[in-house]
Amino acid sequence: MTTTVVVPLLLLGAALALLPPAGALRRIRTRTASRSVRATGAAGRRPVAVAAIAALATVLIVVSGSVAVVVAALLVGATAHGRIARARADRERIAQVAAVQAGLDTLAAELTVGAHPAAACAAAADECAPPVAEVFRTAAARARLGGSAAQGFRGARGPAAEAFERIAAVWLVADRHGLALAELLQAVRADLQGRARFRRRTEAGLAGARATAAVLAGLPVVGVGLGQLMGASPWRVLLGGGVGGVLLVVGSALACAGLFWTDRITRRVVS
Fold this sequence. Notes:
Blueprint: H1 3-18, H2 22-32, H3 37-64, H4 67-112, H5 117-126, H6 132-144, H7 149-154, H8 161-177, H9 181-229, H10 234-238, H11 243-270
Helix pairs in contact: 1-3, 2-3, 3-4, 4-5, 4-9, 4-11, 5-6, 8-9, 9-11
């Protein structure tokens, strides 16, 4: 058997070996459910994603007969997957921080009228969606058992963990020094709103730079397409292996590196 046949068979076998059964996926989701919803989804999808990548690599090698095509496709796919995952994580963080702000409104209002911290946290949980509501319920349980609700907020995980850490910090300050907790919570909410407004303005200002980076990364593809229309047959050179395969991998790596570096710079400005 030639290498062109052996390598696809090995990759296909790896794909089948890495694909977990349904029972295993259920156990993964059950064990990680208490940590965070996001972590649960990532743990459940990771083995399937690895198996899908191995199967796709098998198909590409069989169709093209070139390992360079597979390497270039994996580079582009990994870059696209990373950018989509980061965008999804940003949307999730924004939604959860907004839910925390809504919960803080209810929490501060309940404490202002003299409600017990446990009842106030429970009322705030009713105004939020999971997993933010679960954190408020944990804090309510802590307060109901005689402890400090700050410990419930401090143990929170996920995209809104930083916001909950701020709530825990001001709660501990109020417990230690006897300050008005409702006013401190309103200050935390105002701080979260200010940070959200700053992030939106910064994201809007960086939209042009990100669009320019995406256009520049796609220009080589447009150039190759124009060369193909002119009869220069660049695809045959790039997909034919040898020097063309090396150029395909290097070009794909440089384009992906440019996108990665642009995202790193813009995200550092936003954060």
